[in-house]
Amino acid sequence: MNRFAGGMALLLCWALGGTAVADAVSRGAYLVRAAGCIACHTDAKGGGPVLAGGRALKTPFGIFYSPNITPHPKMGIGSWSDGNFLAALGHGIRPDGSNYFPVFPYPSYAAMRAEDALAIKAYLFAQAPVARQNKAHDVAPPFSWRWTVRFWKWLFFRPGPWRDQAHQDARWNRGGYLVHAVAHCGECHTPRNFLGAMKSSRFLAGTRDGPEGGIVANITPDPKTGIGGWSTADIVQVMRDGTKPDYDNVQGSMAEAIRDGLAYLTDDDLNAIAHYLRTVPAIENSLQRQPK
Ligand code: HEC
Ligand code: HEC
User: Fold this and answer.
1) What is the pLDDT of residues 235-266, one digit of tens each?
2) How far does the centroid of ligand 2 lie from the alpha carbon of residue 152, in Å?
3) Which of 182, 187, 189, 248 to mutate to test the pocket of ligand 2 (most atoms within 8 A of CB)?
4) Which tens digit of pLDDT belongs to each residue from 97-120?
5) Which atom of ligand 2 is nearest to the CA of 256?
6) Is 66 in the pocket of ligand 1 (CB under 6 A)?
7) Cis upstream peptide for 142 (omega within 30°)
8) How far is residue 217's CA from residue 285's CA, in Å, rounded to a whole number?
9) How far apart are CA 2 and CA 182, in angstroms?
């Protein structure tokens, strides 16, 4: 190869490499929204910078504070390798080998494809680093002990990517992937046991003990207590702007999940989610407040 051809080849590699990175960043920008990372990792109430953490998450076990996930080398995750990132999202494991608390919804993200997780990392690393110190969780023992998570994981955590089902079409499989892995609808809509694990047999059946102690709707296709009476278009509409078929608006954490995430999804993806939801097992679960 002469020098000119060598130079051209190098230039071509550089250009292609650059395109691949730009492509990952833009796919990551989309996925970061779909996955709700921004809502949870931004202290919007306290006026904190985007993705720099500090948002309080109230749980029955105490208050957790999301960490800074900007690429700041010391206060964020700027020094992390791809392997560190995949271990965190896919297995709930910290760079030092200890465990994350499952309030970080890795039990759902574990089903995300590695290429999608790495696109999210590419996006995060393309943002400006923010110097903001992480805040310690306000949780009492034994729930503050990270080593106890080992037993929790042994009991409840089944990692592994979402697997497309050959007898279903592409829309159903895309919807299932988004519902289970990326948009993690079950983390809020599935009731939990006394150790905070999702009851998989009650998938999406709703709960009275939602993220802010509020009611989270039953979104299984049960005609009486779920959304069995909604059309696919009705379900798409609520995810796009929060409007329900009765013209009421969703509130609280759902309104936030829409504003910072679901509202940005393509029509195809919202349709896929709605289509998939109509095929999950219908579960009767009335969440009306009991009269006092
Ligand atoms: C429901 C709130 C919530 C959502 C949604 C969420 N996280 Fe987190 N995340 C947390 C909490 C809380 C922790 C800290 C857990 C701990 O201390 O064990 C955490 C920890 C992390 C960490 C480890 C940081 C460190 O310094 O060790 C990374 C990386 C991370 N999240 C990335 C993400 C990404 C990427 C997304 C979106 C795909 C996301 N998170 C979505 C709440 C959330
Ligand atoms: C952060 C928690 C959270 C996540 C994540 C979440 N939801 Fe919700 N969702 C809620 C809450 C809380 C309500 C009840 C809002 C209200 O009553 O105003 C709700 C309400 C709804 C409703 C309206 C049901 C009705 O009968 O009024 C639909 C439909 C819905 N969610 C679908 C979804 C889908 C699909 C996903 C995943 C793509 C999802 N949600 C993810 C918290 C969440």
Assistant:
1) 999 999 999 999 999 999 999 999 989 999 99
2) 26
3) 189
4) 999 999 999 999 999 999 999 999
5) 1
6) yes
7) yes
8) 9
9) 48
**Residue 202, both tokens:** 């009650």
Token pair 């592409």 in the structure block, residue? 170
**How far, in Å, from the CA of 272 to the mean position of ligand 2?**
16
CA 104 to chain centre: 9
Tell me how far apart the alpha carbons of residues 165 and 172 are, in angstroms, rounded to a whole number: 9
Q: Ligand 1: which residue has its CA nearest to atom 9?
A: 104
Q: Cα(182) to centroid of ligand 1, in Å? A: 13
If phi > 0 it is left, if psi is from -120 to 50 it is alpha, else beta; for residue 184 that is: left
Report CA(9)–ligand 2 centroid distance (Å): 51
Contact 206, 216 (CB under 8 A): yes
Distance CA 190, CA 198 (A): 6
Q: How far is the CA of 23 from the centre of ligand 2 (A)?
A: 31
Residue 72 CB neighbour total at 10 angstroms = 18
Distance CA 184, CA 174 (A): 13
- Tokens standing for 152? 């929790």
